[in-house]
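> tool_call: predict_assembly(chains=two)
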Amino acid sequence: MSDLRSAPAPALTDEDHVRGDPAAPLVIFYGDYTCPRCALTHARLSGAPLRVAFRHFAIAAKHPRAVPLACAAEAAARQGRFWEFHDALFADPGRTDDPHLWARATALGLDLDRFERERREQEVAARVSQHTRAGMRAGIAQTPTLLHDGKMLPGIPDAELIARLTG
Amino acid sequence: MSVIAAGAPVPEFSLGTEDGETFTRDDLLGKTSVLVFYPFAFSPVCNDQLTLYEEVLDEFSALGATLYAISTDASWSQAAFKEKLGSSVRQLSDFEPKGATARAFGVLDEGGFSQRALVIVDPEGVVKWSYLAPSSGDLPGVNLIFDGLDS
């Protein structure tokens, strides 16, 4: 039987990418770097007093660069620069080809050879897939989707929702 | 109107294929089918729904399940939609008489289009599981279909 039957979203672990005040309300953002609605969500969440965890929901059938960009962010994470790379992807979503990734990696001072090698590693692809499939099991079906207090909130958050999330 | 319930025999219906042929209840017999009723070709949620299902199509096939996408759009529109998405799910048109199949399955919106619904049909032509989304804007995840196939 498939492993995509319903299951709760995984609890936050040390493996997650998390930033923000540890005392602030937690939002788990399931997103995709090729999704314009996610770029807008990222912009809206960036200024909010929230603790944000980002998980990949990268659907290859939706966009051919969805998985490669997620893998690139994970490769940047190997060098301790996940959030910087994440911000750089959402800041310029029209530039997603390999030379654009190299430019970002160089600008962030990453070891480019290592970045190139690691973004193609099976282990990195498996991590992205693990995020996506765990999201599917939890009922995530589109991006962006936010999880907060066990509630699923699909769509771009408006000011009212963000105010509610921040308490 | 409510979606056809598990245990009910699938009603007689007639849908149009992209090739101009007719697809009926008999075409469902002998295999497990997942009927994906959706409101409108090219609408944002329908785009997301069919690309999401495409992502795990091999896993549905591994369980012996075949997906069909059904809307009240004309076959020409469905064919263009399918091409745009790069989808391999077969499209079936409920265009003429418009919405007759959606009505027979209890998923016709009073606006004349199909509500977002899923119906799993067993090889004997009996409904195994069904689901009606709370609204057309709600996208049922793949987890629900796998749960339904396992029910």
